[in-house]
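Subject: Interface between my chains keeps coming out wrong

I've been trying for a while to get a sensible model of this assembly. When I model each chain on its own everything looks fine, but I need the whole thing in one frame so I can look at the contacts. Pasting all components below, labels as-is. Any help appreciated, I'm running out of ideas.
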Amino acid sequence: MSSPRYACFRSVLKAGGPVRVAGAHNALGAVLAQQAGFQAVWSSSLEVSAARCLPDASILTMTEYLECAAHMQKALGIPVVADCDTGYGGNMNVAHMVREFEDAGITAVCMEDKLFPKMNSFVGDRQQLLSTEDFAAKIETAKSVQSSEDFFVIARTEALISGMSVEEALRRCHAYCAAGADAVLIHSKSRTNAQVLEFLAQWDGRRPVVIVPTTYPDWHIDEVVAAGVSVVIYANQGLRAVVASLRHTFEEIYRSGDTTSVEDSIADIGDVFELQRLSEWQKLDA
Ligand code: SPV
Ligand code: MG
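Reply #2:
Try treating it as a single job with all components included. I did that and got this:
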């Protein structure tokens, strides 16, 4: 029997050390994250929808998000953590989602306690949440239909995002753990890490904690780990780098009339061939 090409997310987490996860929207970005040293790749709903110039608002279907996550996983030697938004509907949608993602070789999914259709966490102020009981039921559903014991379900609370208190976030996360969540994700769009630190100070460690430090970028990984965080998702920096880099390159080529001025700052074609693993493919034809 051939051994799997990648470890499941649960075993990566068990291996210890901080698990650093980079957001991506296609296999190329995912492989670049792996090459940089990241332990896993986040198939970000923001990135995947932005890659199609669509809002991160439950517009793409589960099948489209799954296809994207599966493309990334096929190219990787590290696990994908699939951002599955709200689970794409109610309990039945969640059950279907877990079966489909697991069948495609995805070993970890994340669901958030917003209402379907959801809106990206950085849009607006008072996003509405599902009741604690209804979201706990989704977590319970997800855990009840997974076929491998290793499949990993992250319960993400948007309590802080929607203006609720740290106490409410804790109460929700406790309920999600009781429903079977393998980890909790505490999301915040505060400009500092104070809210998340307050949450961590009261968290009893019953499950690992995941954070997404987009709006508080100056929190060094060593301090994040010392505060009790197990998994850090750098969710959208890759996408933002692509936007800035492509914009600059295209504008510069158009402005200057030739490509000389950008040649030193863009990858050479040989680099692209390596990412395509061209030489391995050519052996098949030798
Ligand atoms: C994503 O990357 O799609 C996320 C994180 O869910 S956030 O954009 O902050 O909601
Ligand atoms: Mg998302």
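Reply #3:
Confirming on my end. The longest strand covers residues 19-24.
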